[in-house]
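Bench notes, bay 3.
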Amino acid sequence: MPETKKQVILEYCRAKALERIGPEEIRALENELRARLGSNIKTSPSYIAGVLREAGKNVEYHDRFAGPPIEEPYASRLRNLLQFHDFVSAEASLRKLDQVYREYLEASDRTGTRLVRSLLKKGKLRAGSMAANPRVHPDKRAEKAEIAAWFRIWLETPDLFFDWLELRKASEEFRRLCLP
């Protein structure tokens, strides 16, 4: 079975006994991934940092795509909730994040609500970046632009978002987007 990116990252970190991971170590990991998985493999520094943070490593790397380190109990609750591979996963992700957001809101947990909003901002930024990338297939770029708009609208009007989304999905424009 071929190695996954995650396996290579964690194995390299173990083999080098890395305690502190900064930009230099991230670059070394990018090189290791290309060497072991092929030169055509593209892995963002943000992804590498995220894998290492999730594994409990001390990562001192920040960019606009990498979310801030999240402390417990929030990390366990929010881990892997942000998904936007396609429209279905994006909507499911928004529903889960909205539910968690409302629980934090009801408990007056400002840290929790701030973290949910920061995840959605990160999603908006990442989806928007993919939508603007000319190397991404045009159909996928259009999908990511739509998803970025969903995140933006949720951030602006969370109380109205799901009513808006139902109307949006019923629109002729959205149906054309879904049927390339």
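Next record in the batch:
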Amino acid sequence: MLVVGAGPAGSAAARTLASAGIDVLLADQHVFPRDKVCGDGLIPDAHHAMKKLGVLDEVMARSQRAGFVGCIGPLGRRIDVPGSLAVLPRRELDDILCRHGLRAGARMLAPARFEAPIEENGVVVGARLVVEHKEQHDVRCRWLVLATGAVPQALIAAGMCERRTPSGIALRGYLHHPGMAGRLRTLDVVWHPRLAPGYGWIFPAPGGLFNLGVGVAQSHTISADGRGAMRDMNLRKVFAAFTKLHKPARELVEGGTWWADGAPSAEPVLKGAPLRCSLAGARWSRPGLLVAGEAAGSTYAFTGEGIGKAMETGIHAAEAILAAHDDATVRADYESRLEALRPRFAMYEKANRVNAHPWLVDILIWSAQRSPRRLARMAGVLDETHVPTDAVTMRGVLRAIFIRQ
């Protein structure tokens, strides 16, 4: 088997396959460890996937644990939603996941960039890779798992891309400020009209490091042919607004040290990345090929969280391959597994309207502050034990205002 992309989805697929005795080649365009633009938050779905992969203990031993997500509205109202949470920079997390895949028996090829699938009679039977940035290398395989992330070039080359533009964009930087480590212990998400249609975040990482960033939903227009253009917005200006309007963010920037690639930086270092959300924008399978992770749209639209679902899709791809021998059964099994995830993605897609109308956050926070049951349901959403049907519809808002539950 060939798995292209050694992030959470690809490494999860490689480990699952290799643990079952399958010969797996794991290819990535970067040599690990490498940086990856992300909020770095590990919510409960990531914990469940890591436990299944057998990496949870090692990851948690190196992570900054947290017990709450802090939701902060435009009026300064705040509600802390309990959950099993952690933060670990993707440079470390992805390296752990990749190494566990190799320990299980997978082989690594890097740097190796996916150029095109190799096909015979309409079936993918391998891939053409560019190794060391110069040599073409053809790899034959029974199945190709494409886990190449949000950048669409690999999807386009494989004939799997249905939408070239991303669902959203994010920008983040790391700041080292040990003096604030005792004060900022929750994963804080901030909504404000000056950040709409998006949000800002501060996530505490180990050793007094903080992941500070902003995300914007529905950042691009989309045309009928899947192409589009970025809307009139400047993410750096959104980031600057966040650091001015939210006091802890301002204190981090004014008193902290910028950090990049595991070391202090004399200059601010902000990195951006596209997001592919809601299981949309790509075909999930074709004969001989499965698409997993953010390439398949495994990121949640509302929050931008995607690590856990990326791992889940990688595990599902591997388990579908292991469960059947014929192509049609594997593809049907895999696609049914992703379809089963749709209700949660649909709920987060519906919640996206909060990013455009941040006043809704204040209403929901006010409601949760006066209703323990509503707070419990918010915790259930985070823990994936509760899927609300109207939390962010007008009906849900009216219920929050007039009905105490």
